[in-house]
Amino acid sequence: MKKTLLTGTAMLCLAAPAMADELNIYAWSDSIAPELIEKFEAETGATVNTDGFNSNEDALTKLQAGASGYDIVTPSQHFVKIMIDEGLLEDIGAAELDAYAAVDDRWKGQWWDPENAYSIPMAYGTAGFAVNRDLYDGPVDSWAAYFEPTEALQGKIASLSYPDEVVGAAQLYLGVEFCTEDKAEMKKVYDLLMAQKPYVAAYSSDNIENRLGSGEVAAHFWWDGNTLRTRNGGANVEYAMPKEGLVGWLDSFVVPKGAGNVDLAKQFIEFMSTEENATIQYNYYAHSAPVKIDEAAAKYTPENAPELFPDVPVEFSRACSPAAQDLVTKVWTDLLQ
Amino acid sequence: MRALTSFRLWGLAPAWVLMGLTLIVPVAIVAGVSLADRGPYGGFDWALNFGSYREILFTLGWTDELEFAPKYLVIIARTLGYGLVTTAICMALALPVAYVIANARAGWKPFLVYLVTLPFWVSMIVRVYAWLIILGNEGLAEKAWKFLGGGDVDTFLFTNGAMLTGMVYSYIPLMVLPVYAAIEKLDPALLEASHDLYGNRWVTLRRVILPLTWPGLSAGAILVFVPAIGTVLEPMLLGGGRQMMMGTLIQTQFGGGRNWPFGAAIAMVLMAMVVVVLLLNARRAAAATEART
């Protein structure tokens, strides 16, 4: 009996690699169309597991902790750069993939992956703020409405629980350069956020859709596509177009170093980047597609989705030096101490 | 004798290995990281650097001077304060609940105990989200408040009260169960004796029930206090995350702050506080045993 058990265990161990046709994806929460996951599973016979994250920092920390077990991660541009510099990503020869040919030229050879060796863009968009129009009918053409709220919004504002894009937006409003190492400049950012704090109801990156949609708060720091989806869901929300500009982001598929199934990961990236599937993904995710899509089948146009076609400047987040990052953290811990 | 010694050594070896791998090694790693040099983008390099501990008290100010900054001490004190308040509320609520269960009819007892443990079958996050709905706009709490004649409220969410409600709710079963066990053992004859000796209800509670159930209460207090000071979810989701607690501070340092050694140092401080509480309790328990014999 004991022997059978032992043999059984040994066989299980041996069998494990054989059923390794599993793809573990770590992506922004709800960012990949479930329909496509099912289709991919049906086409390849592989099992796909998806985990969600709500901030780039979470994704980076998990990869740095080692042996994350993920085959695909979808960080934003500045974190792609950090992950490459830190040696956390697998060189997948992205420029050789068919997916690369589908990528819009303006996203090729960018500073975060100049050789196009590690990443294939997946979606891009902006970070700004949205208001609930049932509760607030004032202007939203400037960050002033958000950072220096009038009485209508006081106590009805929510921010994110981490500094990354919030500090960037404050910098746009104040005309402070991204990633500055100048303490006096960052003190201005701190003073602005500190003056805003009494009017902020919550600093939370979770559950934004409910908080804003249900009217728990009247203005929330948020992303373009999420606002669009919530608006299409029936909530009376509007994405602001502040004249000072929006914070840009571009998420890419990357493969962590030591991933268990690099080939399947590449296969998935190719799969997601075909014109047909990219269109399905675009229609689901409601963020702009950096690869070629079928315009005729695309659900969102400048007419019905102004969120995705900003008419104000867009400034992309950068990978800050440690000194600059320390200032960002200092602003945040001093703010929430 | 020798057989016994060798059994103690080898028979308990699996327990020692398990303790070592799951308790001692991880703590040693955190201790090591707290002394390491920080990596530029998170991560760390092994070193012997006490800078992270110094940073808890002294930080570079906005004017580039090294100044004594109590901000982290404030966070630590706040965390301890909310931990204590949560524990006190749990105690006050758990005692009558446990008393009712202990005095219920025999057939009901297992069912009532089961009810107390029921929330543990559901994920913590889901339970906290449930409170978002209860306390949120037009939620149950607001309706009840208006029904009882309360005035207009914007929302109950994003307040310290909401956070404490969530914390008490999350941890109270850990208080009810040990207190129930203690009351269960309480001999009703002692209560009758107290009444026979003209002790009124208050005196009976203070001089008979409380001393005899104290072991259960103090065990519950530790079970509640320790997770309460490490809490992350309730302050973020219900409290609105406007003020950091130690849990959120540690999370920030490992995440956005990209300063693992400092996060580890704060974690060590948190752990040291837990150890102090446990040691104090152990000493008191030992003293109590001694006094009895």
Automatic annotation (TrEMBL), chain B:
Main location: membrane
GO CC annotations on file: plasma membrane
Domain ABC transmembrane type-1: 76-281
Any single biological process term in GO: transmembrane transport
One Pfam family this sequence matches: BPD_transp_1
Family: Belongs to the binding-protein-dependent transport system permease family. CysTW subfamily.
Name of the protein: ABC transporter permease
Organism field: Mangrovicoccus algicola
